[in-house]
Each structure stands twice: as C-alpha cells, then as structure tokens.
Amino acid sequence: MNRTRRIGVTAVAVLAALAGSPGLVQAQQPPRATQLTADADSALPPGWRVTGEGVARELVWRSDRAVPVGDARIEFHADGRLLGVPERAEDGRTFRLAVNRATSFDDLQVLASGRRLDAGADNGSKARRSSPAAGRPPAQLPAHSVDPGRPGSYGTVGGEYDLDPVKLPGFAEPVEMRAVVVAPKGATGKRPLALFLHGRHTTCYKPGGTEDDVTLEWPCSAGTQPIPSHQGYLKDQELLASQGYVTVSISANGINGQDWEAEDGGAQARSSLVRQHLAKWAGWSARPGTAPAAVPGAGAADLSRVLLVGHSRGGEGVNRAALDSLYPAPAAQDGYRGPVRWKIRGTVLIGPTIFGHNPVADVPSTTILPGCDGDVSDLQGEVYVDGTRGVSRGAALHSAVYVVGANHNYFNSEWTPGQSQAPSFDDFWEFPDEEPDPVCSPGSGTRLTADQQHRAGATYIAAAARLYVAGDDRARPLLDGSGRRAPSADPARVLTHAVGARRTGGFLPDTPVEVTGGGRLCSAIDPDPAVACLDPETEGSSPHFAWWQTEKEAGRNAVALKWSAPGTAARVRPATPVSLSGTRSLALRVFVPPNTTGTELDVAVTDSAGRRAGLGRIRVDGLPGSVRTASYWARELRVPLTAATRAGLDLKHVKSLELTPRSGSGQAWLMDAWGWAPGTPAVRAADLPRVDIGRLSVQEGDSGTRTYHIPVQVSGHGSGKVRFSVLDPETGEATDKLVTVRPGSTPLDVPVEVEGDTRFGYDEQYDLVAKAVRGAVIGSYRGGVTAVNDDPEPVISLTPVKDRGVEGDALTWRISIPEPVDVDLYQPVRVFPVTEGAELSTKDIDPQWLLDYTGATPDPERPLSGTGLWAWETIAAGTTATEFTVPTVRDQVAEPAESVSVGLTDYDAEPLPGHPPLTGTVVDAP
C-alpha cells in the first residue's frame, strides 16, 4: 500500500470545517512540483539557485547590488503565490528561503511592497518601463489659521536613558531599553507624553566606514556600534516639547536584528517594547524620585494623555501597542504582562507597514503617506484608514496625509545622507539602466529636499498631537480632508482625506451594494482584469488596493467608472437606505488616473420615496505619478446637502447615490461617500472580542494518523464578525468563511489530519488567516499547522547504464534511490574534467543537447567540462530512478578514445562525498 503523509484541504471540507461541522479536513496528495531541467542557470532565472540537502534545501537569490535594509518585507514569489520571506545574508545581496517542501519554481520573483527587485524584472516589467511625463503638483491649498508647525513658548531640555535589556518571546537575544528624551523647560503640572518608535533599518555600523560596513545583526560585533535610529526624530521632539509635551524616542535595534523570523514581522515584539517603556514612565510619574537623573520631565509625564508615533514597521508596532493596551494579547506571545497604566489618545504612523491589515478602529490615527516612498512603496498604510470602516462605532477619526515628493527615509535624520552618523541612503533608489523618475528622482520638480520633508512631517505630527491629545478641534481641518494647509509645511504639497469622526450613513462598497448604469462593483485584489479595480498590468498602483495575504480577497471593493462620452450615471444602491440626517455635506473619496486633470462628475441622491436631488458637481485631478508610485489615491470632495433639503428629501432614508460624468471620457473610482459634519467627538473604545491564531509544529511520525487543530483563541468581550481564510498549501488560493466570534468559544474548528510514514517528504504547511469585519479586533492574524518531515533523505547512487560506445552513441547513467519517496527529488549532476586521456569536446556532443543543457554552442571548440555543465535531474515522486544521458555525434576525424567524467554533487556544485565521478568513453566508429 502506498503510505504517504498528506496535509492539505478540499474546498468542501474547508467550508464544512469553517461552518463547525465535525468532519476532518482531509488532505490531498500535493501535485508534483515543476521539474528543474537542464543546468541550474537555464532552469532558474539569473541570480537564483538551490542549495543545501534534503530538509535543509534553500532557494537562494543574489542581487547584483546590495539591497538596502528597509521596512517592506522582501518576499519570494513563484507561479503567482507567496513562497515566503527569506533571510538576508550579511553581504546585503544574498537572500535564503528554506524550501523543505514540494515547491514550484515557475515565474520566480523577488518583491518588496509590490516592487520587483530581481533580474527577471528586466525587459517589460513596469518597474523598468519609462514613466510618462508627470503632471503638475496639486495647487497649494488655502492656509489654515492654526499652524501646529510653529514652535511653542517653552525652551527644551534633553537627556537619555539606557536600562537593563528585556527578553521578548521568540527572540534569542535581549532587546535594549534605550531612549532619548526631550522635554519642555519650565513647564508646570503634568504634561502629555509623545513616544516615538523608529522602523526597520540596519542596526550596526563601523565608525569611519562605508555603506558596506553596516550590518543587520544583534548584538553588534566587535568594532561596530549601534546605529542611533532613535535619535532621528529630535526635530519633531523639540517642536512638541516647545509646545509642552514630554517626548521620548526609543531604540529597537534588538528587534530589527532578529525580526526576520517573526511571522508578523516583529509587530508584537515592538508592541511589547513600547509598553515596557510606557510602564517605566508610568512608574516614574507615580514616584518621581525613582527616575534616572538624566531623564528630564519623567515625574511630570501624564500617562493618561499619550500619543504614539511610529515610522514604518514602527508604525505597525505602535498600532499593535494601542491594540494590546485595549485588548490584551495572549500571555505566551506577549513581552509585557503588567498593568496598563496609560491611555493612548491617538497614533501617528509614518510610511507604515501593516502586514496584518489589523488597524485599531477605536484609537484615532493619522497616517503619513510619502508619495515617493521607495521602501513601503505600495503605501499599504492606507489600510489604517480604509480598514477601520464599519469595524466599530466609527467615532474615531482616521486620516491619511499624502505628502507629494516625500521619500521613506528622510523623516528620520539618522536615515538621511549628510545628517546621519552612520552611512544612509535615499530609499527611492534606481537601477542603473532606469530612466530618471519624473516625480521622485532627486531634482525633479515634485521631489522634496530632506529638510523640506522633515519639516512637513514634524508639522503634521504636531497637528495630530494638538487634535488627539490636546483636544483642539481647530487642528482638525488640517487632517480630515477639509482642504486646508499648515504654512509651516510649505513648500510641500500635502493632501488629506479621512473616515470616522462625525461621518455617518456611508455608501460603502465593501458592504452589500448594487451598482448599475455606468459603473461596476470591482474588487481591490483579483488577478482577473474584468473583476479587479485596477488591471494588474496598470502602470503605477493604488494604496487602497495594497496586497494582503491572498491572490483574491473578499470584502474589499470600490466602484469603478469608465466612460467614452458624458452623461451615463453610475448608481450605487446599498441593501438598506442610509441616513444622512444631521450632516452638512456629502463627502466623497474619489480618485482618477495620475497626471490627469479636469475630471468632472455630477452628484445626486435619491430617497426611499423616489425624490431625487442634484447636489452639485465635483472636479477631480490626478496626483503626480509614475510607474513606480502609488498615486491612484482618493481625494476627499464635499458637496453640500442644502439642495436635498430644499427638495424635501427624507435624509434619514437615502436609497441611492448617482455619479454622472460630465467630462468627454475618462475613468474614476469611488472608495466611499459619507454624510459629513464638523467636529471631533469623544472616543470610547468598544468592548470587543480579540482573535489570535497560533501555530503548531508537529512531527509526522512513522505510522498511524494524528489529528491536530489550528489553534484559534478568542478573548475580550462581546461578539463580532471575522473573515477567516484557509490557504491551500499548494496554490495559495483562499477559501473564505464569515464567522461570528465570541470569547471563550471556539469560533471554528479546522482539524488537520497528518498521516505518519517512514518515507522521506518535505514539510507541509497549512495556514489560516483572519481579518476583522465588524465588532472584533485581530492580534495574530496568521497561523496554522506545520507537519515536519522526520524521515531521512534516501541515499542517491549513480551507476552506469551505457558507459562505453562509439561516436554517435548516447552515454547513459542511472540516478537511483533504494525505494520510492513522496516528493520529487532534485539531484544535480556535473561534468568534471577527465583525469586521464582525451576529453569529449563541445563538437563531439549533439549541438541541440549542448544548447539545452548549457546555453553554449560548439564553437569555439573546448572540453565539455569547460562549459560549466551542471544538470539537475529529477527522480519523480513514487519512482526510484531517472537517467542522465550525454548524446555524442559521429564525425570524420580520426581521434583517440575520448571520455567524459560525470559525478553527483551537492547543491553548491561540489562533489558529493563518497560518490566519485564515473567515466564514459567513446571511440571512433568502425
């Protein structure tokens, strides 16, 4: 009987499991991986190779230049699916991913926030195409009467502390507790606290060295020093301190040097570190005499008024800290287990990552989106706005601040050339053969200088502090799409939009809605151009449609309009009428293609009684954009509801929204539309259930069948809706189910059956992901069961089938194993120089075979071993052997006996120990 360990799912079984039925998720035998044929160079794209043996097999990519350390995850993809997140080597060029399971290597790609980095991106990738001429920057908005970028009345005083390091779950080395503090001088009473967390950057440098002397290690090796990334926000700290805030910027090098193994990219660890520091400040505030002498303002900090500011992965870290402060994480995964003695009033997230797509709906946030971000280039931080819609009460303001011409790094002076202590770089780097980018290359008309960018960032951080912490509603128009600017940020062009606060009655495409006429309901993530909001081949991208975990994603939609003549209305009708009562305007978030101008749309609404009112006309211009920018970003446009009131519409029951193009032709996308009124309501966090998915790693065993269950924990209070997605272990395709979750219960049971055997196979991983839909929060968003192969790889042997012949014969060797295994085995074979006699040359071999296996031609004639012939042969699953054949050709030249030396190698092309090369010989035909 063919006994195999199997792990996988069928769609029917998955849905049954998600629905709570008792049946097992029965595994399927995985399909055979694509065979690696010919030599390694022809089988894999340039820069790629496979190394290691058996379960230690690795897929390796080496770049032709050092890849700067950034916050975007570098990912390996193949055949349209995510393979995994590789480990970066010390040289900054080499990346390794364990592939100890059956894996297809078709269409290999290296992606970072959607940008392709590998050599396969040449010739045709949109990352390398010439960009169209960029449009003009948007017009400068009217100046607001309130300008938080102006320094306050206080002088400032600074200090630092360096406490005992802390041990965090999942990290081998302790993480530093180091920070720089800037506080107001002479301030009386308790002062609000602003805490800054930097993102992922190189950790160590050699003083006086070059950019080749920086590393991503922890702790720093001898002769190197920690890079002081936490000192990069001193200008921001000084501005806030002058306005009365105690500020602290903490170091996270110990996380940066170890987070490559963390499934969440280090978000939980960063949250733990933030809360460790907040706990220290809470203690110092309660007992001022216990604070280090060098920490100014420690006893004056008011922990009931906290602003968290996070840059890049630090943004995701402070978001998680806000979540963990309201909804505690499971103790086993948390690095802080003490009481919560603080209240987070808001967060500012600068070019943030959000790998989990799990924003905190009930903590106000401002997300700064750098228009020329070369690191987190898909601007996935937009999810901190879009992803909060409908999840909770909607009272918290969530705003996005799009800064035209800003890159990722220059918000931190320690990541800015000419200002940093360690070597630093412009993250909007370009390949040598790329055309200069019309929007983002230094010197372009829209690109900001480092000082201009940092000043704009400091201004809008201060605006968020003034609104969320100080409660000054006069700062809101700078953040909420009201179309006002802070002059201190000039000459930067800064645009904003928002959801939440006093917005009500949303036309939200993510909810059940019907779209008719000149529009269609489109999906944010779908490979089918007829379904997707943006064709996958579109030049440029949209932050609203940033990729998550699945090839297709349910529940993320927009309304797409496309017209060739004016006048055909797109009608949006929700399943139930919405209420616009008590609001002043209808606020629409709409975007058009970059570099376009003058798109005009008439806006109308109809109530349940059929009364219709035209509200006015909006004009939308595209942002400056190129093939490398995420410039399909929505502008907030408002039309007053006075016409609807005059027409006698029942604004409590509005059944449809119409958008009618008035431009000759064009495209537009509607993200949502809300009733809007001024003001910032008080926010009280709802009591919500929290979902965390765990991961089990189990041995397959030698016999029998064992059943494991993907661990899903629900804590907190109340009930909510969560979309769970089971990922097929081979295709990555998701099977979704919307589930009601309640604390203390098992919201779903996904059993995985693992069958033991004594035959070699690769590890199999079965994953589950989760995203909040309504009334819930997500902590650990991905987990599953990994069945670990515990059987040794079989010994492979090489034996001759035909190793002597005449010219024109094929020399053949058999590559075999004692018994079949469950997976394809890839065995490299190399042609070595012969040690005695004459060697077969390139003209003695079939020319087509030579081309297929080496990419070489017979001329100039040279020994066959001189071609570097290194062939990969596959022993297919369920079989025991394959053959390697060298076909010779007959010629008319009298020659001595000629030989070829063939031997097995490891995955680094070195001779396999204990397997000496074998020789095959041909002589002239009689």
- What is the number of beta strands? 49
**Mean pLDDT figure:** 90
Assign the structural class, choosing from mainly alpha, mainly beta, alpha/beta, alpha+beta, or little secondary structure.
mainly beta
Intertermini distance = 51 Å
Q: Order of strands in the sheet with the most strands?
A: 9-10-14-11-15-16-17-18-19
The residue fraction in helices comes out at 10-25%
Envelope shape:
globular
Q: Characterize the biggest β-sheet.
A: 9 strands, mixed
Number of helices: 10
Folded structure, characterized:
The chain is mainly beta and 926 residues long. Helices cover 10% and strands 32% of the residues. It has 10 helices and 49 strands. The strands form 11 sheets. A 9-stranded mixed beta sheet has the order 9-10-14-11-15-16-17-18-19, sandwiched between helices. Helix 5 (267-286) crosses helix 6 (313-326). The relative contact order is 0.12. The model is unreliable at 1-42 and 121-129 (pLDDT under 50).
Key features of this structure:
926 residues, mainly beta, 9-stranded mixed beta sheet, 6-stranded antiparallel beta sheet, 10 helices, 32% strand, disordered N terminus
Describe the protein's topology:
Blueprint: H1 11-18, H2 40-43, E1 48-51, E2 58-62, E3 74-78, E4 81-84, E5 87-88, E6 94-98, E7 109-112, E8 115-116, E9 155-166, E10 175-185, E11 191-197, E12 204-205, E13 225-226, H3 234-242, E14 246-250, H4 253-256, H5 267-286, E15 301-311, H6 313-326, E16 344-350, E17 365-370, H7 383-386, E18 398-403, H8 450-469, E19 494-499, E20 504-507, E21 513-517, E22 519-523, E23 557-563, E24 570-574, E25 585-591, E26 599-607, E27 612-620, E28 635-640, H9 642-646, E29 654-661, E30 666-676, E31 689-693, E32 695-699, E33 705-709, E34 712-716, E35 720-727, E36 734-741, E37 751-755, E38 764-774, E39 777-778, E40 782-788, E41 797-802, E42 804-806, E43 810-816, E44 825-832, E45 838-839, H10 847-854, E46 870-875, E47 881-887, E48 898-904, E49 918-923
